[in-house]
Design brief:
Oligomer: single chain
Structural class: mainly beta
Distance between the termini: 27 Å
CATH topology of one domain: Jelly Rolls
Radius of gyration: 22 Å
Shape: globular
Number of strands: 32
CATH architecture of one domain: Sandwich
Largest sheet: 5 strands, mixed
Low-confidence stretches: 295-299
């Protein structure tokens, strides 16, 4: 694995020709995705600036152009009319000001009348590498590029650690006030959320206080990417706690969880109705960000969620090719019987080609519908022709739990973090929807009860599957929906 110097990781992109050769080279990779957003070069991580504005979906991802390494971060901008067909638009935000001289780090966007406003963390470092995080804003211009404000909205608080980032902006109609939620860490290294408020979107921001979440005062050492939304009259708090091990998550110290409850904006208190839940049970899912659709036709309001297929401290096989990462399929969010349900957006099924015979061969990009027979069963993906190896899924009907084991894959990675995870269910397992792209697998259980996301890198001999007797399998190839054009 390449050892990167600080100078290499924090090199400033001077122009498209700096990365043209790298772009051309990675186009030959067998693991470039067909229907998932992925970096044009280098590393993609957190989804940023996700919003619907004037009929167009805008989405950015944190991007380090030079390789599969965390270094100088840009925002790369993509757009879509339907959350499915994504077009490369080029750099959205570049670290070109003193207050963001070492990176334009994660944030969000909000559609405000004629304006689409982006909020992000400006990562400033002094010569001695001391970090100062600023909360900054930019407005989408007529040229389709965000234009930064001349100065940050505000700087960090000295009564918390330097880890203050990932601004998420929401508007509370009850008191006609905007709020910014900042992922943060206390001086004694406990994860938390800082809250700012203003009557105006681009000025007048004042510190309101630290969000109170009863029962979660010492839950992880840092909370990244906080996000609050209201779905069907219930509030949902989504965040990514770091520096802690949680039950059933192996040795990972980075997680994505949610709470359902009630947000009191006056008291700055989110009161959970019950315990936290994992947003995704898979090996590789983090930093989820949501958007919101309000139906003017009287239909149901719904949330839309997208996450990073990856984890901050993990490493993946495509690092050898100088690129890594992708974003998950967008998911619709509903609350049913007090639980969050996540289902793939319906439009993704329009990418299906003609159904093919379920004969044990597994296309590199496909959609699989699985009907479960009741009782225990196995479904194994990416096996060899003789049925050995692969990503092995076992369902234990008595415990209502699915165990996913990736130790049988030829390309093993992040072994110390854990290669076996369990997905506990409340209802008997009846069906699965599985979306396979060239380097990712997303498994949706039932009607959105649970989701399992994993990076997978099958070798040439691993494009087969096996299933227990009684398991019904239908299979469709998937068409390309994401442009991979060289736009910088």
């Amino acid at each position: 694995m390449k050892e990167w110097t600080r100078e290499e990781r924090y090199r400033v992109l001077q122009g498209p020709e700096d990365i043209r050769e790298l772009y051309d080279r990675i186009q030959t990779s067998a693991y470039r995705q067909l229907y998932h957003v992925q970096p044009i070069t280098g590393l993609s991580s957190d989804p940023n600036g996700f919003a619907l504005h004037k009929g167009t979906w805008h989405l950015c991802y944190q991007w380090c152009p030079w390789g599969a390494v965390h270094g100088l971060k840009y925002w790369y901008h993509v757009t879509s009319p339907d959350l499915l067909h994504w077009k490369n638009e080029g750099i959205g935000l570049a670290p070109d000001r003193d207050y963001d001289n070492r990176g334009t780090h994660s944030g969000s966007a909000i559609s405000n009348g004629n304006d689409l406003v982006f909020f992000y963390t400006g990562n400033h470092r002094d010569e001695d590498w001391t970090r100062t995080p600023y909360t900054c804003a930019a407005v989408l211009g007529e040229d389709g590029r965000p234009a930064k404000l001349d100065a940050p909205l505000f700087g960090p608080r000295d009564d918390h650690s330097e880890h203050q980032r990932d601004p998420k902006v929401v508007y509370n109609a009850d008191n006609q006030t905007y709020y910014i939620f900042i992922g943060a860490q206390t001086l004694d290294k406990r994860g938390c959320v800082l809250v700012y408020r203003s009557k105006e979107l681009l000025s007048g921001w004042e510190y309101a206080g630290q969000l109170n979440v009863p029962g979660y005062e010492a839950f992880g050492g840092m909370w990244e990417c906080p996000y609050i939304t209201n779905i069907g009259g219930r509030d949902v708090l989504i965040f990514s706690p770091q520096y802690t091990r949680l039950p059933g998550r192996g040795e990972s110290t980075n997680h994505n969880v949610y709470l359902i409850g009630k947000m009191d904006y006056d008291a700055l208190t989110f009161t959970p109705d019950g315990p936290y839940h994992y947003l995704d049970y898979g090996f590789d899912f983090y930093a989820a960000q949501g958007a919101f659709i309000s139906r003017a036709d009287g239909g149901t309001d719904k949330g839309i969620l997208i996450g990073w297929i990856g984890l901050p401290d993990n490493h993946y096989p495509t690092e050898e090719e100088d690129w890594e990462g992708s974003l998950s399929l967008p998911r619709e969010l509903r609350i049913v019987d007090g639980k969050l349900k996540q289902t793939p957006i319906p439009a993704v099924l329009t990418l299906r080609g003609k159904e093919i015979e379920a004969s044990g061969a597994l296309p590199a990009a496909c959609y699989m519908e699985v009907s479960c027979p009741g009782g225990d069963f196995e479904l194994n993906l990416y096996t060899k022709a003789d049925g050995t190896g692969g990503l092995r899924m076992r369902y234990d009907a008595a415990r209502k739990a699915v165990t996913v084991d990736k130790r049988g894959l030829d390309r093993r990675f992040n072994e110390a973090v854990g290669e076996v995870l369990e997905m506990p269910l409340e209802a008997p397992l009846e069906k699965l929807q599985i979306f396979i792209d060239r380097s990712s697998t997303e498994i949706f259980v039932g009607d959105g009860e649970a989701v399992f996301t994993a990076h997978t890198y099958p070798t040439e001999g691993e494009f087969h599957y096996t299933a227990s007797a009684g398991v019904g399998v239908r299979l469709w190839p998937m068409e390309k929906s994401v442009t991979d054009e060289f736009v910088v």
